[in-house]
Amino acid sequence: MLDLMPRQRPVARTAESEKITINLGCVDLGHVDLLVAEGVYGNRTDFIRTAIRREIDRHAEITRQSVARKKVELGLRSIDRAELEEARATGRALDIRVLGLVSIASDVTPDLARETIASLEVLGSLQASPAVRAALADRLR
């Protein structure tokens, strides 16, 4: 098992990175280590990031079509208390779809989130309090 942590900082996660863990076979890992030893990559993480970016670039057209078809927002989507209170005041329910990071502000209560977020689809990472995550559990896709 190869444990990858792009940054080792004692602070909370940021929009810049997300820790993942992957399992590689011994031969694949050996190839990665050989390329690192030969100086092609600085470390295992550099190799894996480069490989991921190449695959994302290779399939960019599929991503573009899917984002357009599903009306997905790209990048960072911050949801604050004021936005949700405005939605509640106007009787709107939000359907949120994001490829990237969704960050729900710490002052958003579970009740406010439940009243105003009809659905939440995150392809990437969701940052929200445990209570808000629990309140939206049946609406997460």
From TrEMBL:
Pfam family, one: RHH_8
GO BP annotation list: regulation of DNA-templated transcription
Protein name in the entry: CopG family transcriptional regulator
Organism whose genome encodes this protein: Methylobacterium oxalidis
